[in-house]
Design brief:
Helix content: 10-25%
Order of helices and strands: EHEEHEEEHEEEHHE
Radius of gyration: 20 Å
Shape: globular
Distance between the termini: 35 Å
């Protein structure tokens, strides 16, 4: 008698430096591809995963969430050990759980938190160079925090995203948290929202850093957001400092 398929939720951490992003694609190796290939070896059939969202090339994740429906006799604890045995050292599945059939990693999500790390030291911390944007020039943190307050709330974020043609529903999102905290030479920008547009967090970071440098005023940022149009005034921060930190359900 054939076993029924079950829905499994995976929580995944990865260093995105070597990968073309989360999503399987033709121009490079992706995190999704490697996990799907590992699962196929374990269950003896192709497996299709669905992530909570894409992360771009070079972006990291502390807790990406994905689900997959397949048939196996292995309990979740065995699946966890087995899949990690097939994965490289820079990808780790940290949890596997059987979940109801209606659970969808992307569509069931209520919100996400991203963190962006900036190394503000005069000299680069070589042990952080893959996980932080080195920015040795002085930054005005109070100005950055004033600018952050403008971004919190429900707005059309076209001005703080890239490639508006990729928006398939609406450019309106609600940012519930945006903090700028420095400990030592590490500056961390934390953003929580009900959803994010393409490169939205990296664009927010680029705008806040430009405010901190004095090259963009808080008033100008307010006008940019109200204008609902991406311009060259907003710069996109490098991918290496960005982490998908958690997904809320």
């Amino acid at each position: 008698m054939r076993m029924p398929s079950s829905n499994y939720r995976f929580i995944i951490a990865y260093d995105g430096t070597a990968y073309a992003g989360w999503q399987r694609q033709s121009n490079g190796i992706s995190v999704q591809q490697l996990i799907e290939d590992a699962l196929a070896k374990i269950v003896g059939a192709p497996v299709r995963m669905h992530g909570s969202g894409r992360t771009d090339a070079g972006v990291h994740a502390r807790a990406q969430v994905a689900h997959a429906i397949f048939t196996t006799r292995h309990p979740p604890a065995t699946l966890l050990r087995a899949v990690n045995a097939y994965l490289p050292d820079d990808i780790c599945v940290t949890a596997v759980k059987q979940v109801p059939a209606k659970f969808h990693a992307r569509f069931s999500a209520k919100g996400k938190e991203y963190r962006y790390q900036i190394d503000t030291g005069a000299l680069v911390d070589i042990f952080m160079r893959r996980y932080a944007w080195h920015h040795p020039r002085p930054l005005d943190l109070p100005a950055m925090r004033r600018a952050a307050k403008l971004i919190i709330g429900r707005h059309d974020f076209t001005a703080l995203s890239a490639n508006p043609m990729r928006v398939i529903d609406s450019p309106v999102r609600t940012v519930t948290k945006l903090t700028v905290i420095r400990r030592g030479q590490l500056l961390t920008i934390t953003v929580s929202a009900n959803g994010f547009l393409y490169k939205m967090v990296r664009s927010i970071t680029g705008a806040l850093v430009k405010v901190g440098e004095g090259r963009l005023t808080v008033a100008q940022l307010r006008e940019l957001i109200a204008g609902k149009r991406r311009t060259a005034l907003v710069e996109t921060a490098p991918a290496r400092g960005l982490f998908l930190w958690r997904v809320r359900y």
